[in-house]
Amino acid sequence: MEDGQELLELNDISTSFKIDGQYYDAISHINLTVKRDGILAIVGESGCGKSTLATTIMGLHDTDTTRISGQALFDGQDLLKLDDKSMNDIRGAKIGMIFQDPLSALNPLKRIADQISEGLDYHTTMTSDEKHARVMELLSQVGIVNPERTARQFPHELSGGMRQRVIIAIAIACKPDIIIADEPTTALDVTIQAQILDVLRGIQAENHAGIILITHDLGVVAETADEVAVMYAGEVVERGTTEQVFNNPQHPYTRSLLRSVPQGNQDVTHDDLYVIEGSVPSIERMPQTGDRFAPRIPWIPAEAHEENPSMHEVAPGHQVRCTCYQQFYFKSLEETNK
Ligand SMILES: Nc1ncnc2c1ncn2[C@@H]1O[C@H](COP(=O)(O)OP(=O)(O)OP(=O)(O)O)[C@@H](O)[C@H]1O
């Protein structure tokens, strides 16, 4: 397959959860594309719907309490319409998932080799020798220096960084076309984070997969991703290449997120002072009309917002939600204190 080819197309995806007998949207009308050889980062504060998007694509929701609409087109089929058996065949084989907490994602009672082999058992007809060879190859690929030893160990015998490497080995065992990594480095210290990101980039180069990288860490995005989608309150509010979004952020939310990145030891000047208070509303309190970010920037006049905010193209491939970005400015502390 060619580079940059569209692997997964998310069209108008909404997912709502039933709470006290009523359904509430956790994500609304998501449109995104994952390309071969590309890393798409999904960023936003806690509660904005990043994990819900991942679990929706993976078909991991309880159908009795979850309502999903839209399409997730992959390999000529809509993942959201597949039955359990077909989805089980895809999960692990064509789409791999890396979870945030490697300890809870691993079985404490099973040796590492057996846990990596599980996917191979389910999805392939490899002999035991072939499986052993593949496990060794995978452990080396994720940077484990003594694969024979690690293969025989149990999860509690490994460090956090080693466990995350094992989780990645499990996710890529069957050479999936798509890897969804949900906060893969959050539980790790900074040095190990950098190593894990190197492993992910290496895998992308070697396996030619498309990666969805979910994170709230903009440093991770800047270092790793090709494209970025910024989510706020269940919606994508800005998307573009990493360069477009980082060098020329347009949505007030993106701009506030980027300003909150520590800028080394630069002195903060008057112009850098700004205030965006508040937090992501819970899904029961999510406004259903208007700009969901408007309450957090009350100094922007109501008429600057759209009634039904849509995405506007500000450069080829760079889109921003709602016209309010045209009139947005940061409010200085001086103004705030008036
Ligand atoms: N099964 C569920 N039932 C009810 N509400 C849910 C469920 N799963 C998630 N939510 C709600 O949906 C919203 C989005 O949650 P989600 O976990 O997708 O956000 P997130 O951006 O991944 O946050 P975090 O970074 O903390 O994981 C939140 O308000 C959350 O409380």
UniProtKB/TrEMBL annotation:
<keyword id="KW-0547">Nucleotide-binding</keyword>
<keyword id="KW-0472">Membrane</keyword>
<keyword id="KW-1003">Cell membrane</keyword>
<dbReference type="InterPro" id="IPR013563">
    <property type="entry name" value="Oligopep_ABC_C"/>
</dbReference>
<dbReference type="Pfam" id="PF08352">
    <property type="entry name" value="oligo_HPY"/>
</dbReference>
<keyword id="KW-0813">Transport</keyword>
<dbReference type="GO" id="GO:0005524">
    <property type="term" value="F:ATP binding"/>
</dbReference>
<dbReference type="Pfam" id="PF00005">
    <property type="entry name" value="ABC_tran"/>
</dbReference>
<dbReference type="GO" id="GO:0015833">
    <property type="term" value="P:peptide transport"/>
</dbReference>
<dbReference type="InterPro" id="IPR027417">
    <property type="entry name" value="P-loop_NTPase"/>
</dbReference>
<dbReference type="InterPro" id="IPR017871">
    <property type="entry name" value="ABC_transporter-like_CS"/>
</dbReference>
<comment type="similarity">
    <text>Belongs to the ABC transporter superfamily.</text>
</comment>
<dbReference type="InterPro" id="IPR050388">
    <property type="entry name" value="ABC_Ni/Peptide_Import"/>
</dbReference>
<dbReference type="GO" id="GO:0016887">
    <property type="term" value="F:ATP hydrolysis activity"/>
</dbReference>
<protein>
    <submittedName>
        <fullName>Peptide/nickel transport system ATP-binding protein</fullName>
    </submittedName>
</protein>
<feature type="domain" description="ABC transporter">
    <location>
        <begin position="8"/>
        <end position="258"/>
    </location>
</feature>
<keyword id="KW-0067">ATP-binding</keyword>
<dbReference type="GO" id="GO:0005886">
    <property type="term" value="C:plasma membrane"/>
</dbReference>
<dbReference type="InterPro" id="IPR003593">
    <property type="entry name" value="AAA+_ATPase"/>
</dbReference>
<dbReference type="InterPro" id="IPR003439">
    <property type="entry name" value="ABC_transporter-like_ATP-bd"/>
</dbReference>
